[in-house]
Amino acid sequence: LCKNMLYYSIGDVVLSIKGACKGEYFIVTAVKDKFVYLSNGKRFGLKNPKKKNSKHIKVIKSATDNCIVEIIEKGQAIGLRTFKSYIASAVK
Question: Please, which residues have CB within 8 angstroms of residue 11's CB and are 6 or more apart in sequence?
């Protein structure tokens, strides 16, 4: 493993720093190899997450809400209001 490789966890709030969605905040919903899958409740929900290279995001806040992590892992629905409040609490 590369020592410079960044690690992400489900439930982390991240900021896209490159690409078409630069400047948007997301919640990490899955991690696979060098890619992370991101949702924001708007264009990219849990069922259709954005696949993004992990080099192109920056962690704003590590996962702190076990309820969100559990919901994501179970594949349950999360409302837009929940996405927005979770992201807003991390961005403060």
Answer: 27, 28, 62, 63, 64, 65, 68, 69, 72
Q: Which DSSP string corresponds to 12-53?
A: -EEEE-SSTTTT-EEEEEEEETTEEEEE-SSSS-SSSPEEEE
pLDDT by 10s per residue, the chain, length 92: 444 446 899 999 999 999 999 999 999 999 998 999 999 988 999 999 999 999 999 999 998 778 889 989 998 888 899 999 999 999 88
